[in-house]
Design goal:
By secondary structure, the protein is mostly helical. The chain contains 20 helices and no strands. The longest helix is centred in the first third of the chain and has 38 residues.
């Protein structure tokens, strides 16, 4: 392996480390919430804002951060994001009141958006050759799934052994090491410039529209989908986003150049990702609830029970995805991954109230490794139509639809489970609610599979030649 090749893989390791910290934080916090509530005196409704504040800031700023990264340089945006996230983690760990923790979580979301929005764009430019890019994206996808699973275990261990403060403080050494490594290993570039002529109005419309949309979704658990509050907030979000699209058609330096949406692979992959993540992210929540509320597992045991899914995803994404993509193409691998995920979800519809882990859950956990095939292939297709100068904003868009899909799935499917259960708390009633929601999640995956077959094309057959593939290996990020 040449020196140049080793440096590119070292740069990928830095990007994965930063993403691991951000993804880890998202799942590690959920296990510590009961301890946070007891210690800081959160009300039940207020406690949800330790999650919502992060999600709103993170999802709302991804698109803006991606475009700014294109303009000022993606390395600068990534390093700045790590610094903000790490500093905010220190504030979270030192929080002495609900207001301080919620404010620090919002700041964490800002830093997470800054670092995450440009990561895929940097991978695309670091690995222009399709086979190497598939391997890199597979490793990056595994980092996300592994972080979510590890966080569930680590959150319980840290909270029980030390205190809830450490679920945030653990980010400090990771953030500092990743930041220093990023300064040394990532290639810096000036970006495309144009910051002075950047579309400020478009940035305001996009950020406020996405934030309003995410806020609308996350508050449905408290106010309901059909309430006047939800309908009004949803209408405001749609109006802001419609105004943003109209603005992009006329702006001299648009935040989201509409040309990127001319590619079927770009807009199709983003829509498919929303459906896929809506079905999958809710699966993690619902299975964790099933294990604890129906089977009686503890927090640490629940995290350990879900580790086989992460291991299966890791094997398929790191060992097999790149080889299969090189041989059969991204579209065929994506279809296979979605088919496996769909089979796993409908397996769950048969879960009994007295289920056994080895026979009822472990096989499904292993089949869920289909995500390790689906996500790298979908990411490759979604980024295939991006020009080099647009890689950051396309990366930001891809991450935005990921967050919106996850938030939408959790809000919709957990509400559906609660509607079936009503006020009953028996294991049988809870199990019926979880199975109904898991079946609906399978419906979302089926819709994603149909769209994949109808819309996506192999990059060579897409409307636009994937210009990023012709970029030299020395392209700066």
């Amino acid at each position: 392996m040449s020196v140049q090749s080793r440096s590119r893989w070292a740069a990928l390791a830095v990007l994965c480390a930063g993403m691991l910290m951000i993804i880890l934080d998202g799942s590690i916090v959920t296990v510590a919430l009961p301890a946070v509530q007891r210690d800081l005196g959160f009300s039940p409704g207020g406690l949800t804002w330790t999650v919502n504040a992060y999600v709103i800031a993170f999802g709302g700023l991804l698109l803006l951060a991606g475009r700014l990264g294109d303009m000022i340089g993606r390395k600068r945006m990534f390093v700045a994001g790590l610094a903000v996230f790490t500093a905010a983690s220190l504030l979270c760990g030192a929080a002495t009141s609900p207001e301080m923790l919620i404010g620090a979580r919002f700041l964490q979301g800002i830093g997470g958006a800054m670092a995450s929005a440009v990561s895929l764009g940097m991978i695309v430019t670091l690995f222009p050759e399709p086979a190497e890019r598939a391997k890199a994206i597979g490793a990056f996808a595994f980092t996300g799934s592994a972080g979510a699973s590890i966080g569930q275990v680590l959150g319980g261990v840290l909270t029980d052994a030390l205190s809830w403060h450490w679920v945030f403080l653990i980010n400090l050494p990771i953030g500092l090491v990743a930041g220093v490594a990023a300064l040394r290993l990532l290639e810096g570039g000036p970006g495309t410039g144009g910051l002075r002529t950047a579309d400020g109005l478009g940035a305001l419309l996009a950020t406020s529209g996405v934030m309003a949309g995410v806020y609308t979704i996350v508050q449905t658990g408290q106010h309901g989908w059909g309430s006047a509050r939800t309908l009004l907030l949803g209408a405001v979000s749609l109006l802001l986003l419609a105004a943003f699209v109209a603005r992009q058609a006329t702006a001299a330096a648009p935040l989201l150049p509409l040309r990127v949406l001319r590619s079927r692979n770009v807009w199709g992959a983003n829509l498919i990702q929303m459906l896929m993540l809506a079905g999958l992210f809710s699966f993690q929540i619902l299975i964790a609830l099933y294990l604890q509320n129906v089977l009686g597992y503890g927090a640490t045991a629940t995290g350990l029970a879900m580790l086989p899914a992460a291991l299966s995803i890791g094997v398929l994404s790191l060992v097999f995805s790149a080889r299969l993509i090189a041989r059969f193409g991204e579209r065929a691998v994506l279809v296979t991954g979605l088919a496996l995920l769909l089979a796993a979800r409908y397996w769950l519809v048969t879960l009994p109230v007295d289920g056994h882990y080895l026979t009822d859950l472990l096989p499904m956990m292993l089949v869920s490794g289909g995500f390790g095939l689906a996500m790298p292939a979908l990411t490759g297709l979604g980024m295939s139509g991006a020009r080099p100068e647009d890689a950051g904003v396309v990366s930001g868009l891809f991450n935005t639809t990921q967050q919106v899909g996850a938030a939408l799935g959790v809000a919709a499917l957990t509400t559906l489970a609660a509607s079936r259960t009503g006020h009953l708390t028996t294991a049988g009633a809870l199990n019926d609610g979880y199975k109904l929601a898991l079946g609906a999640g399978g419906g979302l995956l089926a819709a994603a599979l149909v769209l994949t077959l109808a819309v996506l094309r192999r990059p060579a057959a897409a409307e636009e030649t994937p210009q990023t593939e012709s970029a030299p290996a020395t392209t700066t990020v």
